[in-house]
Fold these 2 entries.
Entry 1:
Amino acid sequence: MLTSLIRVHHSQIVASRKLRPVLDELKASLRRSLARERELTGWNTAGLGYVRRELVENGVVGFGAEEIPLEKGAKKRSFPAIA
């Protein structure tokens, strides 16, 4: 909603010198928030990669509701036969 308001009133906001400090503060706040979200996303991605590696090492294929264990000697990237 904030971005919509800024887009609609962009010319008035930019023309106002009184709003410059508010915009600078908003910019800094948004950058801090975005940095936190990027960090959180990075941690979540790393965690999912770890879980995936553990599942592959333990012989479980896929992330679906059904976990299909690999047969001994089967390739890790093989697909189960559907009859």
Note: The mean pLDDT is 77.
Entry 2:
Amino acid sequence: MQVIKGGNFQHISIDISGKIMAPILLIPENPLREDSPCLVVDAGWLAISSKLNKFEKDKNYKEETDPKKLFDEYSIDLQQASVYIQ
């Protein structure tokens, strides 16, 4: 906020949207036995998205008190995660 109040503010936006396959973790109960039950953690998908704020060149952002109006929002959501024993 100090940079904005001081007048040295330049807003740069990156618009992101996509899905990334998250890892599958295999955790054996006993790693020394082949027939040991295994905990499977499927992290599913990571969904990444952005919500960009529109900035006006003639607006004085030094007087803005709401940080949500100064910064873009990005979200990372975990989708379709599952845990089971095999």
Note: The CA atoms of residues 21 and 45 lie 5 Å apart.
